[in-house]
Specification:
The structure is a single chain. By secondary structure, this protein is an alpha/beta fold. It has two domains: about 5-205, P-loop containing nucleotide triphosphate hydrolases (Rossmann fold); about 215-280. The chain has helices at about 45-50, 70-75, 95-105, 110-115, 130-145, 160-175, 190-195, 215-220, 230-235, 260, 270-280; strands at about 5-15, 15-30, 30-35, 55-60, 80, 150-155, 180-185, 200-205, 205-215, 220-225, 240-245, 250-255, 265-270. The chain has a six-stranded mixed sheet, sandwiched between helices.
Length: about 290
Amino acid sequence: MSSIIRARGLVKAFADIRAIDGVDLEVKSGTVLGLIGPNGAGKTTLLRALLGLTGFEGELDVLGRNPRSQRAELMEQVSFIADTALLPGWMKVGQLLDYVTGMHPRFNRQQAESFLQTTEVKLSRKVRHLSKGMMVQLHLALVMAIDAKLLILDEPTLGLDILFRKRFFEQLLNDYFDGERTIIISTHQVEEVQNILTDVMFMNNGKLVLQKPMLAIDEEFVELHAVGEAATQAEAIPYVGKRSILGGSAFIYQDIDREVLAPLGELRTPSISDLFVAKIGGDSNHG
């Protein structure tokens, strides 16, 4: 797979605060990348740099182009969606389709209308009168009708309940992703995207803390659930993070022989959210 994003020493500073602090990044085509981090981690600033919406220092190449100096050409290949609430409420759905048709050369209006025909979203309705569920369906119609090589989603389901968030990501994967397109999803709702990701990236205080394929997470990290005396023994082995469970503790280890841990309790692959907490601010013991 070819790389569609390459960054080396990427920096974006606001006064004395580095929102992006020396980031080295490579994203392959066909990737579904989860960009995970707390508020203020620099996620949105990084995405804005990728989209050519903010200046930066260092090297950055997106789809073979410099996002700042070649933004017009870049955006012919890129689709971007932020919070669903940002759609213009005063427009009718049909007017919104007209607008996107005029703005994006790769938008297929017929495809969007075909998708909407399977929903209760009518072209004559104003966006502000749509339910949250309908708003999700409208967003999906817009996204899936754009033939883009790179789709960037910045907290796309913010404010939606869990049912509609789940539906958004499932339909995105089933109806849009084809193994060649690349999707970057910035979110703090980690559990809801974990099952659709091929890669994950943790960001904190402007720095990349971790970037790995999901398969590497399975191989490199293991979680041990230990109780009683076994938990005391596990505590003595250097771990990445620890949290309390009923009667004992759950420890996350990296690059360790699992046969050493097996006698101490149940082994499993850590969830992305638990691994994130361990790497960002968990209780660690590196020996």
